[in-house]
Amino acid sequence: MSLLDIRGLTTAFQTERGEITAVEDISFSLEEGEILGIVGESGSGKSVTALTVMGLLPRPPARIVSGSVRFAGQELTGLSERQMQKVRGPGIAMIFQEPMTSLNPVFRIGEQIMETIRAHERLSTRALRDRAVQMLEKVGIPSPARRLDDYPHQLSGGQRQRVMIAMALACNPRLLIADEPTTALDVTIQAQILDLLMDLRDEFGMAIMIITHNMGVVAETADRVMVMYAGRVVEEAPVGTVFDAPLHPYTRGLLDCVPSLSAAKPRLVAIPGNLPEPARRPSGCRFRPRCGLAVPACAAAIPPLDPHGPGHRVACIRATAEVAA
Amino acid sequence: MTRPLVEAAALSKHFTLGGGGLFRRPGETLRAVDGVDLRIMEGETLGLVGESGCGKSTLGRLLIRLIEASDGQVLFDGADITGLPPAKLRSLRRAMQIIFQDPYGALNPRMAVEDIVMEPMVIHGAKPDAAARQRVAAMLELVGLPRQAALRFPHEFSGGQRQRIGIARALVLRPRFIVCDEAVSALDVSVQAQIVNLLQDLQREMGLTYLFIAHDLSVVRHISDRVAVMYLGRVVEIAPKAAIYDAPMHPYTRALIAAVPAPHPAGRAARRAARLRVEGEMPSALNLPPGCRFHTRCPHAMAVCRSVSPPLREYAPGHSTACHLHDPQHRPAATEEFAA
Amino acid sequence: MSETGALPLEATLAAPEAEPRRRHPAWATLRRLFRHRLFVTGLVLFGIIAFMAAAAPWITDANPNRLSMRNKFQPPGGDWVFGTDNFGRSLWSRVVWGAQLSVMIGLSVVALNAVFGTLIGALAGYFRRLDNILMRVNDALMAFPAILLAIGVTAMLGPSTFNVILALGIVYIPRTARIVRASVIVLREMEYVQAAVAAGAGHWRILRHHILPNAMAPMIVQLSFLFAYAVLSEATLSFLGLGAVPPTPTWGNIMAEGRDFMRDAPWIIAIPGVTLMITVLGLNMLGDGLRDVLDPRLRIQQ
């Protein structure tokens, strides 16, 4: 049994202009100790997927239209907020892009970590404090006992993200969801945080779902990659396959359009056009208007996510055609 | 390369924080840019990289006098523009422009695209007549937007399209020098490449000179001819891009490049183990370390680094760095192989 | 993924549908406003009062000051819609003409604030050098409770309609200026303002084209609440005998006169009281609606 198993999940939002589907019919699973990278640009639905799993979407306006989210055998979609709170923490924890707004500015960071633990475990204040120090040490905060009494504004961006990770890990979650954990950070700090996440996975064996728009972050961390576009999964494969033999034109475009640090490209191969707004998605394959391989048949129906080799799924009717050519 | 179009000489910008108010106390001084010497050659793209808070954005704005320098000079086309009176500055503004990072904050939401692009022309005396509108339409076409875009408002466009509008506004006066301040950083990756290509095409067509400020080292490598690296208000290394990326001299530059995620997963574990890591984070510009500003994080720091600030010195043709490790006078035997 | 280099132009051309329609963002805002229930209710309530004020000469037949001792203390209904007061004056006439005065005073105070509050706020927010001195004067004025300051000013100048407007202007302009200043300070740092500076725009142009139009939203919200305060304060002042001189029909005056007959003729004080309440309630609902729609920070929380 997979740790996390999502089947046919569709999440929609009520807006002034009617209901908009943010995530449509996505299915994937995540094993114990595995790192899954979810890649996508704005509007791809990657963050909504994470928030749906966490039960953190405000309902309304959000609504789970269909599908199931099973975590360690337990169905999460129908749970009440109170039941969900039991899952968050020891089950699934999450860290966000902006570590400043995710910490409460009026409480000391020690209190915030202890509060998280207290919600799930009955421990003496002393034990809580020890545990908090331990967590800060784990995430690489120097002289943790002293930092416990700092307020969030006294820490730098990188340290705040470390504190967020400490809070997320305080209850030994089995799954950590990291939503653009390094986007707001500088490269040297990004490298530190990614190293930390990898070390923590190796040490605790937790699964990590890392959500990012940066293919480099995926290349550094993920075991398996899922590429999303305009609310749907377009390709899913082991990390090596995604980088060596991507089949979906969008995945290839993503890999080609970023400049390389080592090899010089005379000109970037841009993906033409713009990301579709949720209300104005094209018929059939959503990438069709920007795709160099599109044929009339692409407009007819949304291509299904079909298997193409071991652990490799692609939603493109032109995927094999191109490979054969 | 030809001659320098923009030059900075001992350029500094110090902000005073705290203080102010009726009961003025002496506030702390933030040295955002602290004694920078820089030359940008006509027709080149100089990349400017560094972590947030290093002063790269402030430097860009100083060069086009969007903010006033505390000390030092800016030369444009050989002439000192630092003390230029407002009237003369205004005509100079035609020649230098800026493209901003945030495609949402850079356009006035209450103006139609046509008025946004036309505004610089109107400021410089053009009548908003049919000819002006024609020029706006041509400009929009040049940056890859339809003519109909002229009558629309910013909220109707996506991030990439807004950035095109911002570029059209910057180019409408046919400037010679453009500061691209994180101009592609906020865009989705699939759109980012379009804008990078557009900037390169425009440079070729119009003979533009760019200062390309960014924190993404890959993009900077792609677009730049030379690259300058900033750390805490100072330029620590400047060189042609091949030299910077393939043979970086300053330990900070090395760390920056090593920190960029590799574009391929192969061998990542080994890479992770071998990577030059810098510990900690950039100190605050309010409280600068003495000596070399990087010594608090530098794996090669020596005694001299803690007390003497290294000057920016040319060690190879066109390749300058501010680091004692390369100075024969200070270079210890142990780091011989590092400098080699 | 080969020949994609030439494609971006076409693709962007196709992106927004091709009909050239000049859709000002204000239209969308208006549409949202008229879908906002609170705003519409407020608009209707205040609309009734505004209509009474505007149509006063045509919807009243009696001079509001015509005495008719034979008809004093007539209860509402019958010949006298709202009844009569202790001098037999038609309460309907007096309340309607009072509405006119209230709306007129409210509008004048709002206009004074719109001009001087904006001016002071914009100058203080835009020119850092002026900020200190302007805001300290402002703070000094705001240190007094609003109504006490208004009472002080009218007591000094003497009771008259004009002086009430002046007093309320002095009381509220600092508050408006603060709000304008706050948004100007935020807008001054916007990148489109920086872009205008980089293009060589002067201060006047930047204020006129880039800052003030974008500072309008919080300003309009503030002014709609201010209208309510002004009407309420005017009633208070004339109730205290510091407003328009009796027998001028103002709601405050009517209520002050009716106070002595509260037990026998409660309508004299109740009717202008209810009218005042409807006005203030309407304006506040209107203001809440405007705030929800125009001020995005608060809209998110909604």
Task: Walk me through this protein's architecture.
- The complex is a heterotrimer of chains A (325), B (340) and C (302).
- With 325 residues, chain A is α/β, with parallel strands linked by helices.
- Chain A contains 12 helices and 12 strands.
- The two termini of chain A are 39 Å apart.
- The model of chain A has no long low-confidence stretch (mean pLDDT 86).
- Chain B has a domain of 237 residues: P-loop containing nucleotide triphosphate hydrolases (Rossmann fold).
- Helices cover 30% and strands 21% of the residues of chain B.
- In chain B, helix 3 crosses helix 4, helix 3 packs parallel to helix 5 and helix 4 crosses helix 5.
- The longest helix of chain C is centred in the last third of the chain and has 37 residues.
- Chain C has one domain: MetI-like (MetI-like fold, Orthogonal Bundle), CATH 1.10.3720.
- Chain C starts with 7 loop residues before the first helix and ends with a helix.
- Chain C has 302 residues and is mainly α.
- Chain C is elongated, with a radius of gyration of 25 Å.
- The interface between A and C is medium-sized, with 15 and 13 residues.
- Chain A: InterPro entries: AAA+_ATPase, ABC_Ni/Peptide_Import, ABC_transporter-like_ATP-bd, ABC_transporter-like_CS, Oligopep_ABC_C, P-loop_NTPase.
- Chain A: Pfam families: ABC_tran, oligo_HPY.
- Chain A: Belongs to the ABC transporter superfamily.
